[in-house]
Amino acid sequence: QRLESLYLGQFALATEDIQNIGELPNLIELTLKYCGKSAEGLAEAYAAIGKQFPNLRKLYLTSKTGVETDILVMEGLAPCRNLRQVTLNCSWPRRVTSTAIQRLAPLWPQLEELAFDATNPSWGHSRTHIKILQDLALAWSETLDMISLGFDAGGKLPRPSAAVKGRFKKLNRIWVDYSNLPKNRIFPVAEFIASLCTKTPRMSAPDSEEIQDNWDAVEERVARIIHSRET
Q: Helices 186-196 and 132-139 meet at what angle, rounded to 10?
């Protein structure tokens, strides 16, 4: 009953396996691998986690269902009001929508890290448009420290309203997964990110020189813009 941390990443668990763990009200950190074959089953697994471990602060879950997965499968974690870090690595992450963030934000008011990534990223995976950063800034402006998503940085970027300008107070790092960024998108993307931040977040990509170089250029540009605002 006093267990605070549980690592089950070496086992592939079904929903009933999670339910059989029993209730651990003092559990703060949980790492596990889910082996179900449907998004509905994954949602049930999250509901079981929320019910059995309501005081979780850190949850790292890897799922290889092989199907497209919506971030809203995590709504079952509603009882975990103290959640600070949540990671879902899955086969096919679906694009994150503004509506999804608006539904999740009230559930975890103190969220510091949000990661929703593909277990085996490829160019064929759907990407969340980078404008979702506006919604994340509105949802967790005072707490969010790290974001990890696969981004689509193409197309027209919105002009941030007064409500979101400088909204991110603590954002330190953005993991961009395998998010390709053409050179002609560096400046508009940097200006968009800078408009949302009060300090420069570290832009991190996987081990790909081509991807990382352009995101490094974004970070440098963001730093210049923010510095110019302060002088």
A: 10
Q: Dihedrals φ, ψ of 68, to 5°?
A: -65, 135
Tens of pLDDT, residues 177-209: 888 899 999 999 999 999 999 999 999 987 677
Number of H helices and number of E strands within the chain?
Answer: 6, 12
Measured CA to CA, the distance from residue 38 to residue 120 in angstroms comes to: 18
Q: Which tokens in the block code for residue 182?
A: 């053409």
Q: How far is CA 139 from CA 108, 149, 212, in A?
A: 10, 16, 27
For 172, half-sphere exposure in the C-beta direction (CA atoms, 13 angstrom radius) is 6
**Angstrom distance (rounded) from CA 165 to CA 176:** 21
**Extended beta strands in the chain, E state:** 5-13, 29-34, 58-63, 68-69, 85-90, 92-93, 113-118, 128-129, 146-149, 151-152, 173-175, 202-204
Q: Are residues 200 and 169 in contact, defined by beta-carbon separation less than 8 angstroms? A: no
The one-letter code for the residue type at 130 is I
Does the pTM exceed 0.90?
Answer: yes
